[in-house]
Write a structure and sequence with these properties.
Elements: E1 2-5, E2 7-10, E3 13-21, H1 38-65, H2 69-82, H3 85-98, H4 102-119, H5 123-143, E4 158-162, H6 167-172, E5 178-183, H7 191-199, E6 203-205, H8 210-213, E7 219-223, E8 228-231, H9 235-257, E9 272-277, H10 283-288, E10 294-298, H11 312-325, E11 330-334, H12 361-367, H13 369-382, E12 387-392, H14 398-417, E13 428-432, H15 435-439, H16 441-444, E14 450-453, H17 455-463, H18 481-497, E15 501-503, H19 511-520, E16 524-527, H20 532-539, H21 544-555, H22 560-572
Parallel strand pairs: 3-4, 4-5, 5-6, 9-10, 9-16, 10-11, 11-12, 12-13, 13-14, 14-15
Antiparallel strand pairs: 1-8, 2-6, 3-7, 7-8
Helix pairs in contact: 1-2, 1-3, 1-5, 3-4, 4-5, 9-20, 11-13, 12-13, 13-14, 19-21
The protein binds phosphoenolpyruvate (PEP) and magnesium ion (MG).
The site of phosphoenolpyruvate (PEP) has 10 residues, from strand 10 and helix 17.
Length: 580
């Protein structure tokens, strides 16, 4: 038995037979081409580009008919990449310089592109090299006239074990047969992370060497809740996981049955429970889990698509579609937050030594107003399609907020001038995720329509602990008295100013903290859609007086450890805090 720990990207527990999916490796011949044949060789390349493009166009139509427009967009971007004029002219140039067969030339050109992307030390660009690998394999297969061996050939239920999965692998796989996924590579912004969550396939990625430990047919357990993969489990471990899976399934079923309920404490106080999403495909889970709306739509995801920077029209169509699908339920779309751990070539400044404290979010728009204006135009135009709220990330001072509000007014004026319709009274709010904003929230509250507390960043900046660094992860403590005091300041200031205050950091979705957050005065929590039913269950198990009393005691405590113990003993008799 071997147990490996990776990144838990999609929850659930599955036990099944492994299917080791190794990437196709074609033998690429290398031979000389006489000078007078170079033209024909290039024509062969153009014809392979055409066949590969036709193949992808067909898949795009399937993607349109099936579940995922995201996959369709990926293929569209691959079509653009394969037909890129620079790419074609590089192949042409290398053909005449090297006088070798075009399969070999194509593999060299793409290897060089991938090497360049990998050498930049940028996670986003590294993940984009997946796209080039994908188009390279498709092109070479067409040049060699070979059949593709795809994941669509799977006939039994399996757990896919792979080094990494290409977008086209995910597109072609029969999702009803794929029970779980484990990969050697992959990061939090990889396609696989987002797609497995959207399709609710339990997945653990970033395992390092899982492919070296597994053979097809091995028994494998994927624990997507805790990021663990167990290969050939012993009887005792298997029995334990069979039981945990039954528990998990029962728990999920019970919770899904609660989806239609409202988030209400025992005494009837309503708590708004909304969802955090990154891609439009997540709207089905948002509805299925009974969300009151979308509390955080991280709009930067659209900008992480390979191939192109989205235009105003691309953005308008996406936002409108999200609003229409949510049928007038509130949708909070956050303007771009690139920087720190969120990477995009558009904003990446390699010279930054400390990007988390650097040129990100609102700071980026102030020096690139055109990016902000385009997004605001798209957002304001889409506002007539539903119940939109716009939110600015990473505000750290009143001056910064004033500038961004001024830029917003300019965009509105231009829309008025162009006679373009938008909702005049659209609520504009800010994220409170920087301690300076929390401490001056009384001033900020007078200028905006709502607050949403982003604890992921607020904790990192308050305790000076990088939220992505495993070495200091033990210091990342939501119950640190400093964090709780800041949350209290923000909630109190919002209440005094008469504006709503929600929380959309990960802390809001963790049942362990929910009682405390409600006790602190929060009446809106936004979280991963699948956590909503369990949050409803928790909330219905206490009354407001009880949690206010708990919070009063906790706020007098000196350490996170004491607070932790107090919550455990308080929760003890009411519900099993460890079962979720
Ligand atoms: C946060 O910082 O809490 C937050 C919700 O934003 P993100 O995780 O996108 O930085
Ligand atoms: Mg943040």
């Amino acid at each position: 038995m071997i147990e490996l720990k990776g990144i838990d990207v999609s929850p659930g527990i599955v036990i099944g037979k492994a299917f080791l999916y190794t990437e196709e490796k074609y033998f690429i011949p290398k031979y000389d081409i006489p000078l007078d044949q170079i033209k024909n060789e290039y024509a062969r390349f153009l014809s392979a580009v055409k066949s590969a493009t036709d193949e992808m166009k067909l898949l795009v139509t399937q993607a349109d008919r099936e579940v995922s427009k995201y996959e369709g967009r990926l293929l569209d971007s691959h079509i653009l990449m394969i037909n890129d004029l620079d790419f074609k002219s590089t192949v042409k140039k290398k053909l005449s310089e090297n006088k070798k067969n075009v399969e070999w030339i194509v593999s060299q050109v793409i290897d060089e592109i991938i090497e360049k992307l990998n050498s930049l030390g940028d996670d986003y660009l590294k993940e984009r090299s997946e796209d080039f690998l994908d188009i390279s394999q498709r092109l070479i297969r067409n040049l060699l006239n070979m059949e593709k061996n795809t994941l669509s050939d799977i006939h039994d239920e399996v757990i896919i074990i792979s080094h990494s999965l290409l977008p086209s692998d995910i597109l072609s796989m029969d999702k009803s047969k794929v029970k779980g996924i484990a990969t050697d590579g992959g990061g939090k912004t990889s396609h696989i992370a987002i797609l497995t969550r959207s399709f609710e396939i339990p997945a653990v990625i970033g395992l390092g060497y899982v492919t070296q430990h597994v053979n097809t047919g091995d028994e494998v357990i994927i624990d997507g809740n805790k990021g663990r993969v167990i290969i050939n489990p012993d009887e005792e471990t298997k029995t334990a996981y069979v039981n945990s899976r039954i528990e998990w399934q029962r728990h999920e079923l019970q919770l899904k049955n609660l989806a239609h309920l409202k988030g209400k404490t025992k005494d009837g106080t309503h708590i708004d429970l909304k969802a955090n999403i990154e891609v439009i495909e997540e709207i089905n889970p948002v509805r299925a889990h009974g969300a009151d709306g979308i509390g955080l739509f991280r709009s930067e995801f659209l900008f992480l698509q390979p191939g192109k920077v989205p235009t105003e029209e691309d953005q308008y169509l996406l936002y409108s579609s999200v609003l229409e699908k949510m049928e007038n339920k509130p949708v909070t779309i956050r303007t771009l937050d690139f920087g720190g751990e969120k990477i995009a070539p558009l904003t990446r400044d390699k010279s930054e030594e400390n990007p988390i404290l650097g040129w990100r979010a609102v700071r980026f728009y102030l020096s690139h107003p055109e990016v902000f204006r385009t997004q605001m135009r798209a957002l304001l135009r889409s506002s007539v399609k539903g119940n939109l709220r716009i939110m600015f990330p990473m505000i750290s001072s009143c001056d910064e907020l004033d500038k961004i509000l001024e830029m917003t007014d300019e965009v509105k004026k231009k829309l008025d001038k162009d006679k373009i319709e938008y909702k005049k009274d659209i609520p504009i709010g800010i994220m409170i995720e920087v301690p300076s904003a929390a401490l001056t929230s009384d001033i900020l509250a007078k200028k905006v329509a709502f607050f949403s507390i982003g604890t992921n960043d607020l904790i990192q900046y308050t305790i000076a602990v990088d939220r992505c660094n495993e070495k200091v992860a033990y210091l990342y403590e939501p119950l640190h008295p400093a964090v709780l005091r800041l949350i209290k300041i923000v909630v109190d200031n919002a209440r005094d100013a008469g504006i709503p205050c929600e929380m959309c950091g990960e802390m809001a979705g963790d049942p362990f903290f929910i009682s405390l957050l409600v006790g602190l005065g929060l009446r809106g929590l936004s979280m991963s859609p699948y956590r909503i039913p369990e949050a409803k269950k928790f909330i219905s198990s206490f009354s407001l007086d009880e949690v206010i009393d708990l919070t009063r005691r906790v706020l007098e405590m000196k350490s996170a450890l004491d607070i932790n113990k107090t919550i455990i003993s308080w929760a003890g008799g009411r519900f099993d805090i460890n079962s979720v």
